[in-house]
Amino acid sequence: MSGAKVTAAALRRITSVRTPPSSSKTLTTTCTRKSLPNRSIAIPKPLRQVSTCELKLATPLLLCRKSSDDASTKDGGLNRTALHDLHVGNGGKMVPFGGFSMPVQYSDLSVGESHKWTREKASLFDVGHMVQHRLSGPGVEAFLEKITPTSTASLQANHSTLSCLLHPATGGVVDDTVITRLGPELFYIVTNAACKAKDIAYLSQQIEARDTSHGALDWEVLDNWGLIALQGPLSAEILQRALETAGVQDVDLGSLYFGQCKHVSLNLLSTSSSSQDNPVLISRGGYTGEDGFEISIPPSLTILFTTHLLKAGGKERLRLAGLGARDSLRLEAGMCLYGHDIDDSTTPVEAGLSWIIHKDRRTAGGFHGDETILSQLRPEKDGGIPPRRRRVGLIVEGAAEREGAEIVDPGSGEKVGTVTSGCPSPTWGKTIAMGYVKPPLNKAGTLVEVVVRGKRRKAEVVKMPFVKSNYWKQAAGTAPG
């Protein structure tokens, strides 16, 4: 979710088609590029491998083009989500982010006030700039287990998990992602907007290189779909009310726990069949550490359902929130921002994300970068090679430090690490940060210093999250927990 520019191509649908033995394999791609007329181009295979460094310079795919409706429009060269006019109409201050025009805050609340509102009540974030995918087919489990450390075979239907797309050999993180199983051979995946060009190239190459003995693999990029995040302690109450007033009577959100999802058909259109045919996907989770939901919405319902949800919440309980509050909330929750706290050179172990490497994968391996990653997990006495750096949380005295600030040894002044994210914590009134340091300085309680505007300020390594998470979990009869 960094602010890097994305490619001008709005990529639509990519399907790997199994062909007769006598013909070459074909990758069929449907997309729209605004500067070109709609036309189809047949291109022979195989695809040329594209290196990471090339992705900044060229459109990374060879394309077979078809016409397709595109709900997004341009705003000074930036893409717009379907809710752009709603943001502007409600006093949203728009800024470039991930190739989109996005609200950083609104006129009714400052960033700090919006942050606290989310912790105490509920906020609605437009995350329609994120990239939504559907992957399906008889080989989809094996494919995902090759490119991620997730045990997709053991992931239950309508359950989600955080994961990472991994580079071969190095185990570096191509992008962080949420993977949801919707059916026996159907997965829903969300990736970052600013990584779209890189992710599309990566997935295209991996699909082309995969073992095709399992059969065809279908990949759909849902560019037109809306995605909103309802976050805060009042989220469930507000969403339950919104569903009931939209004609949904059989959904009890109290039994939908963190990491679970459910399709729901709404009755908001003049013709109910349209709503029935295009249900929304409600997933319990989010990026703030609070209880909440991320809701994937068909194009025909995005504006309608979002305004309906805001009306159901009422301004005394629910407000729109922007990127500013989203960033401070996620930092308090100890969550990574791609391009800052994790990148292509970072392994999940270095980033403190070892928990996403499922138990059976640690034994069997079989995923990209497994040799490097599993070696980092093994003790040195067993031949392991520990990471040279670890992500940590920091409490820093005084002014907020900037990304890239040096972390130094208090005695010698030697550089021992680098800050990757930092801000004043609206909850604690202290400066918090994340960064990487050399082991064993990653242990909680270790004292270091951070160089802020040329001055060394005292800092302490602390455990994350900085603020206790309040997810709605099924644990010993208590939720959230």
From TrEMBL:
Summary of subunit composition and partner proteins: The glycine cleavage system is composed of four proteins: P, T, L and H.
Cross-referenced InterPro entries: GcvT, GcvT/YgfZ/DmdA, GcvT/YgfZ_C, GcvT_C, GCVT_N, TrmE/GcvT-like
Catalytic reaction equation(s): N(6)-[(R)-S(8)-aminomethyldihydrolipoyl]-L-lysyl-[protein] + (6S)-5,6,7,8-tetrahydrofolate = N(6)-[(R)-dihydrolipoyl]-L-lysyl-[protein] + (6R)-5,10-methylene-5,6,7,8-tetrahydrofolate + NH4(+)
Keywords: Aminotransferase, Mitochondrion, Transferase, Transit peptide
Full protein name: Aminomethyltransferase
SUPFAM superfamilies: Aminomethyltransferase beta-barrel domain, Folate-binding domain
Localization (cell): Mitochondrion
Chain's role: The glycine cleavage system catalyzes the degradation of glycine.
Stored Pfam families: GCV_T, GCV_T_C
Top-level division of the source organism's lineage: Eukaryota
Annotated GCVT N-terminal domain residues: 83-360
Enzyme class label: transferase
Gene3D superfamilies for the chain: Aminomethyltransferase beta-barrel domains, Aminomethyltransferase fragment, Probable tRNA modification gtpase trme, domain 1
Segments forming domain Aminomethyltransferase C-terminal: 389-468
Enzyme Commission number(s) of this protein: 2.1.2.10
Family, as annotated: Belongs to the GcvT family.
